[in-house]
Amino acid sequence: MTGEPMLWSGWGDPALARELPPEVRVLLRDFLGVRAPDVPAVGLESVRLPPVALPEPLLGLLAEVVGSAYVLTSHEARVRHTRGKSTPDLLRMRAGDGSAAPDAVVLPGSHEEVAELLRLCSAERVAVIPFGGGTSVVGGLTASGSGFTGVIALDLGRLDRLLSVDAESLVASFEPGVRAPEAERLLAAHGLTLGHFPQSFEYATLGGFAAARSSGQASAGYGRFDDMVVGLTVATPTGTLDLGRAPKSAAGPDLRQLVLGSEGAFGVITSLRLRVRRAPDERRYEGWRFGTFAEGTAAVRALAQEGQLPTVLRLSDETETMIGLAKPDAIGSGGSGCLLIAGHESGGVLEGGSVAARQAGAAAVLTRMGGEPLGAEPGEAWERGRFSAPYLRDSLLAAGATVETLETAGFWANLPRLYDAVRLALAGALGSPLVMCHISHVYETGASLYFTVVVAQEGDPVAQWERAKEAVNAAIVATGGTISHHHGVGRDHREAYAAEVGPVGVSILQAVKDRLDPAGILNPGTLIPPPAA
Ligand SMILES: Cc1cc2nc3c(=O)[nH]c(=O)nc-3n(C[C@H](O)[C@H](O)[C@H](O)COP(=O)(O)OP(=O)(O)OC[C@H]3O[C@@H](n4cnc5c(N)ncnc54)[C@H](O)[C@@H]3O)c2cc1C
């Protein structure tokens, strides 16, 4: 895994950038009519930034808290902390639009420094965007700076330590800026793992996972990230919250849940206590084929409801299977029907049982439900390419195709309606996009649907996508799904989230924000509307 700074205009380690394979160019031309010549991103130095709005004396006060080496106003630092990694974010950055840049990047080195910065920024009305790995795909890193003296990105990268390991309780304490690969490396030295492998694994941080309620590819075996959090320390402008002194508690509402998913709008997570598991010593991945998505979905539901869930489970619909997206190293060579990937590991919730026995238990269900075993190869190909798909997005954007993902979740009985509603909304807004879908987070009562959309760029590609996104959000709300299973709310889902929780729900969130952050400096515009300027 990489230790390189992420590509500022795209995804991942620049050294791992991928050319579009010829078969993908054929797909683009034949399916979508994309023929335009490639357009590269502008150079970093050509990104247009607004002037630094923070006055020098205020920059000096920030430097007094963290040290002058940790207050950055250089062009490069500001560009690298502008927006997140959604496709509209990348389209804007590629075109040199740095209008959402923070005035300064501030890197605190301790909880106390974070707390002091929040006090100072409240007093001086400086908006603060907590910045973890910078991989938000919902506009969670674009503050509304209007009405503020300026905006800082609070980069948590210096808070990067494993603080303690309680091997008896299987609890590890971390600072929030630890990136996922480093967390795994540090835990591996103790024979432990978190088992959290989202596709953004290479760059996202533990604090960002908690703040945005992330869910990884092995969620069936290890749980969502919010399930792993047993304790949190949070700095807020009004004081420190220290939550979680037992695995479960009947002492009133669980305030940890108020922080999980708060996306930097209520406070800054400065340490996390996480449930960890013993690292698996055996992994087996395999593929299965189902005739239709409906048949595959029924099989996946049976696995969940009969207690036979593998550690990793992913069911592609017919289009995703045909394109071969589950095996990013071999896109364009997909099969027919629907591909199911199952991964069985010796760790996770079922620790102790033999992998062979688990595999056999799941196989009995999948066979009964009409599945045809395809052997290990499709599962191993998925495992090899599990983090590589996002690298293709940059080449697709350059080639004139917009590619973006979106996701929702619902109860089993409502899932087919949700699937149809999202596809209909996309077709209505985009004409004939390529829409692929998979199920990859599965529960006894329902599952998430994860869509990948590819369309030829027309006119202003950001406006083109935003129209589609608005239509999809409305469709999800109207069909009774949640606006996000794991990407979060940010700014992009704010209205739909408000519709989901209703006016009373929004007023509760506002009341919490008003109590913890009376000056409204924390990530204004994320989660709930910003104060009127
Ligand atoms: C290619 C790609 C693939 C992805 N795949 C997945 C996936 O499989 N599963 C998934 O769940 N998500 C996925 N995501 C989304 C993203 O990675 C997650 O939302 C992740 O949790 C963000 O972590 P981060 O450290 O990058 O946080 P950031 O993007 O830096 O921040 C996310 C939000 O949390 C806030 N925040 C960050 N750190 C803190 C803190 N310490 N205290 C308070 N607030 C904080 C920020 O202000 C922001 O609102 C993907 C994103 C990309 C670009």
Automatic annotation (TrEMBL):
Q: What keywords are annotated for this sequence in UniProt?
A: FAD, Flavoprotein, Transferase
Recorded GO molecular functions are: alkylglycerone-phosphate synthase activity; FAD binding
Record-listed substrate binding positions = R393
Q: What class of enzyme is it?
A: transferase
The record, for Pfam families, names: FAD-oxidase_C (PF02913), FAD_binding_4 (PF01565)
Task: Check the UniProt entry and state the signal peptide residues, or none.
Answer: none
Q: Name one GO biological process term.
A: lipid biosynthetic process
Q: Which residues form the active site?
A: Y450 (proton donor/acceptor)
Which cofactor(s) are needed, names only? FAD
Q: Which residues form the FAD-binding PCMH-type domain?
A: 98-279
- Coiled-coil annotated spans: none
List the transmembrane segments. Answer: none
Gene3D superfamilies for the chain: 3.30.300.330, 3.30.465.10, 3.30.70.3450, Vanillyl-alcohol Oxidase, Chain A, domain 4
Q: Which PROSITE patterns match?
A: FAD_PCMH
Site feature: Important for enzyme activity: R314
Q: Which family does it belong to?
A: Belongs to the FAD-binding oxidoreductase/transferase type 4 family.
Protein name (database record): Alkyldihydroxyacetonephosphate synthase
Question: Organism, per UniProt?
Answer: Nonomuraea jabiensis
